[in-house]
């Protein structure tokens, strides 16, 4: 659980994970800063239901970097 300070593109490696999880997305405001927060919950195989497993918070710059990576992989959304 942390604030993301950087996102680095890695072109090789990785694999598709065997399990799926549910996530919640929200805006968190602290004084004058706003963060996009993504929280994931344990997979269906976990014993406790609806327990937050991981939380990442993105400030504006990190969120825009994430959006650029998403656009790089999936293309621009058609409006």
How are the SSEs ordered, and which strands pair?
Elements: E1 2-4, E2 23-30, E3 33-41, E4 52-58, H1 60-74
Parallel strand pairs: 1-4
Antiparallel strand pairs: 2-3, 3-4
Low-confidence stretches: none
Strand order of the largest sheet: 1-4-3-2
> What's the overall average pLDDT, rounded?
90
Radius of gyration, taken over Cα atoms and rounded to an integer in Å: 15 Å
Give the overall shape, derived from the CA principal axes. globular
Tell me about the largest β-sheet: 4 strands, mixed
Distance between the first and last residues' Cα: 33 Å
How many DSSP E strands? Answer: 4
Explain what this protein looks like in three dimensions.
The mean pLDDT is 90. The protein contains one helix and four strands; from the N terminus they run E-E-E-E-H. By secondary structure, it is of the alpha+beta class. Strand 2 and strand 3 form a beta hairpin. The protein has one helix at 60-74, and strands spanning 2-4, 23-30, 33-41, 52-58. A four-stranded mixed sheet has the order 1-4-3-2.
What keyword list fits this structure?
single chain; 79 residues; alpha+beta; four-stranded mixed beta sheet; 4 strands; 19% helix
Structure at a glance:
It contains one helix and four strands.
């Amino acid at each position: 659980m942390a604030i993301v300070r950087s996102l680095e593109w890695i072109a090789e490696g990785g694999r598709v994970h065997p399990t799926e999880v549910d996530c919640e997305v929200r805006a968190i405001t602290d004084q004058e800063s706003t963060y996009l927060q993504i929280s994931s919950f344990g997979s269906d195989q976990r014993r406790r239901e609806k327990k937050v497993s991981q939380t990442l918070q993105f400030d504006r710059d990190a969120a825009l970097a994430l959006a650029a990576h998403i656009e790089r992989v999936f293309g621009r959304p058609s409006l």
